[in-house]
Design goal:
Lactonase_7-beta_prop, 4-stranded antiparallel β-sheet, mainly beta, Cycloisomerase_2, globular
Length: 329
């Protein structure tokens, strides 16, 4: 039996109060837990990097980021800093820095990891209520999708994060999250408001060539509230692309052929409001968090077709909106 620890980020509510830990059996797909792991209200997005868990946090009316060492049985806080007026919606980290995107402030904060904690390295303003929703890196270019500005802002890290252009979209598109292939030649992006998949050819530096745009949802179908897409993940073997859509409560699967994407499945997410999901490293399972109903679920994936087959396990996870999985223990 191969057991992995997983972690859930949540919106603060009467039923949720921070980061939750669960166990996942990678042989059977069975989930156990979750249990409260660390009190961090509004831990809306998690980043797990070499055993270090970074998360937004709200405490005593202040917002910021915390860094937790997960190596032991109990969490160990290694740093926290409060430099934001509201909790960030996205966090990513590397060896030296933690980066947060703050949707409501319209700011990107870069925190430096120090031996004694965390310090603020730089603040980048993207515009009030720009809706910045993710941070990606393409070589030395930092990319920030700004949902409410209908563009991805590009910053040159070698010039102290100076602006280096943008990728623009039609009004009302709402670019949300993107993912690169390992070769950094293909860039896939999902839009929240128009529910579309954008496929780009990525060049060196800030050069991107749009190859195709596909609608995720059936023409003429209307949901109330309106359907809004969320997460996008590439399978480890890069043969399949997965996307989630809230209110429609769907997981959509594409088969990839170079710069072409063929929709092969659209199926229920196992609950209501699938904000995030992950693909296991062996491509055998998909784990999704449904914020309102259905909780954390695991689906078995067909290794040949990439499609979701059976629902293997379900556990309650109120207000869960982010999921990460550690390597087997």
């Amino acid at each position: 039996m191969q057991v992995q620890n997983g972690y859930l980020g949540t919106y603060f509510s009467a039923q949720s109060d921070g980061i939750y830990r669960f166990q996942f059996d990678s042989d059977t797909g069975i989930i156990t837990g979750p249990e409260l792991y660390y009190t961090a209200p509004d831990s809306k997005y998690l980043s797990l990097y070499h055993g270090q868990l970074a998360s937004p946090i709200v405490k005593d009316g202040k917002a910021g980021v915390c860094l937790i060492d997960t190596a032991g049985e109990r969490p160990r806080l290694t740093g926290e800093l409060f430099e934001e007026t509201g909790s960030a919606c996205y966090v990513i980290q590397d060896d030296a820095f933690i980066y947060t995107a703050n949707y409501h402030e319209g700011s990107i904060l870069i925190y430096r990891k120090e031996p004694g904690g965390i310090t603020l390295y730089k603040r980048i303003e993207t515009g009030y209520k720009a809706g910045c929703h993710q941070i990606l890196f393409h070589g030395r270019i930092m990319m920030v999708p700004c949902l409410l500005r209908d563009r991805i802002l590009l910053f040159d890290m070698d010039r102290d994060f100076a602006e280096a252009g943008s990728i623009t979209f039609p009004k009302g598109t709402g670019p949300r999250h993107g993912v690169f292939d390992q070769a950094r030649k293909r860039f896939f992006l999902v839009s929240e408001l128009s529910n579309e998949l954008f496929l780009y050819e990525a060049g060196d530096g800030p050069q991107f060539t749009l190859k195709s745009v596909q609608k995720l949802l059936p023409e003429g179908r209307v949901w109330s509230p309106a359907a809004i897409s969320a997460a996008i993940r590439l399978s480890p073997d890069e043969r399949f692309l997965y996307l989630s859509t809230r209110h429609a409560d769907l997981i959509t699967v594409y088969r990839l052929h170079g710069f072409e994407a063929e929709m092969i499945q659209q199926t229920e997410s196992g609950g209501s409001y699938p904000r995030d999901f992950i693909i296991t490293g062996d491509s055998k399972f998909l784990l999704a968090v449904n914020r309102y109903e259905g909780g954390l679920v695991s689906f078995r994936l067909d290794p040949d077709t990439g499609m979701l087959t059976e629902l293997c396990s379900r556990v309650p996870a109120p207000e869960a909106v982010s999921v990460v999985l550690a390597p087997p223990v």
